[in-house]
Amino acid sequence: MTSEIVLGLLSGIAFGFVIQRVGATNADKMAKAHLMIEAAIPKFMLMAVILSAIGLFGLQIAGIGRTQVLPTSLVATGLAGLLFGIGWGLCGYCPGTTWAAAGEGRMDAIFALIGGLAGAALFAHLHEVLIPLLYEPTNVGQITLVDWTGSTPLSILLLTVVFGGCIAVINRLWDKKDNA
Amino acid sequence: MNKKNSTPSPYWRWLPGAFALAGIIVFIFATFGPPASSSGFVSTLKGALEIAFPDYVASKAHYIMIPDTGSWLFAFVLGMAIGGFVAARTFIIPVRDVPEIWEKRFGKSRAKRFAATFAGGFIILFASRLAGGCTLGLFISGSTQLAISGLYFGVLIFAIAMLTARIIYGNTGKEEQ
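^ inputs. structure came back:
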């Protein structure tokens, strides 16, 4: 086994374990997060992003790691977001949680996994048609907050304030504040 | 007096959970690059299709741009399944094939639930491949790198999923409070 595969396996095991413990692989909890009943999962996701952004900045200062920013296509990213939201709201799984939930032995997640393979296969088949049609015409490139604010620390501060604000709003409007 | 909510949940609280996940995400950035999971579906397919249809795989752009099963991407999703397996085997709450809220709304039919998750899985992967990433590969990885694509995608998926869940479940789940 190459080191890349060992690292991938190790990272996946840790990731799958943590998202199970927080309840993100439980479609009941995910639905209740979407219905504004349970706040734990969305707060967990937003806070994980804030902390990761700070951690990644630390890595960049130390000159470690690799980044790769995906481009923004107004139409393709937007349309994909709409479709994804429908699928996520319908089944309560996203691609990552599907693998961990299938590993848990949840039969409905195994069907989501099979459906996901079929959906990915269909897109891969249509890539040559759909990418030039939907993605490329409105592709505005690999833009980030730094292009707008002019500084990475300022962008991280902005992200922290906005995501922190979202956490505060969720904390106020959702019925149950945490998993406890 | 025992209040209904006084028994501690076996689930982790959100804040320590976020620290744990962020630690793993930063580790992944340091040792590999941006974490992603929808690409793992493509790696799985590529690995399988290469055996049966090598010419087809070699001719399609989407399979050319993503590595096959001998890659970090596939090892990661396989690892997530193993992590989920270990976590569930060491957890006090048994796994269910049909979530409680779904059962309350649509009954015990497993076929109905499995058809819905098949359709949901199909849609989220089709959409993820169009955008180039999913909740992890685009929203979490992207926003961590301050990418507009991740933030734009994130706003839409949360808003539409909340709307969709509202349409599907109505007030189911609310009444148990």
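Chain A has eight helices and no strands. The mean pLDDT of chain A is 97.
thumbs up if we can close this ticket
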